[in-house]
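step: validate -> pass
step: tokenize input -> pass
step: predict -> running
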Amino acid sequence: MSASSQSLLKIFIAMLRLGAVSFGGLGATLALLQREFVDKRRWLEAPDLKDALAFTKPLPGSTVVQVMTFLGWRLAGWPGALVATIAFLLPAIALMAVAAAATFALPDVRWVHGALTGVQVAIVGLLASAFWRLARSEADAPLLTGVLALSFAAGLFVNAALVIAWAGIIGVLLDRGGLRV
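step: predict -> pass
step: emit ->
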């Protein structure tokens, strides 16, 4: 079945479903894309996913959204790119709109406050998990672990851009000083 033979409606529904269950960042979404669009539907081939990453990774912004746009374009040209992007983002937009509306319409209702607190705790947990994975994979030397811990602590009190600049300067100085990090 050729990718170009897919209707925009089919692409919309498939991307909408993917947007509703995509959680966990680029890696998890790529695994879902592989299973849904390459293995199951056979709309794309594995090199299409590699091409999507190669073209979108250097661009600023959300790589996941850019990959969806690229794949939509690959499936049905520019109309496919537009449909894929909107469909993928729609579940997240709807969820945010509902949460915002509930917050404004029912600010003192206990279950709304509890639900939003639960979401906030889940987000903190996901960020902590991502931080832990990053620390284990990238900070494999004591000096890097120290920079990571100091950057994390500083990020709680200082603008993130300053922390990133500080860590980058330390990395350059360590590299120029010939220290093995």
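step: describe -> The chain has a mean pLDDT of 86.
step: cleanup -> pass
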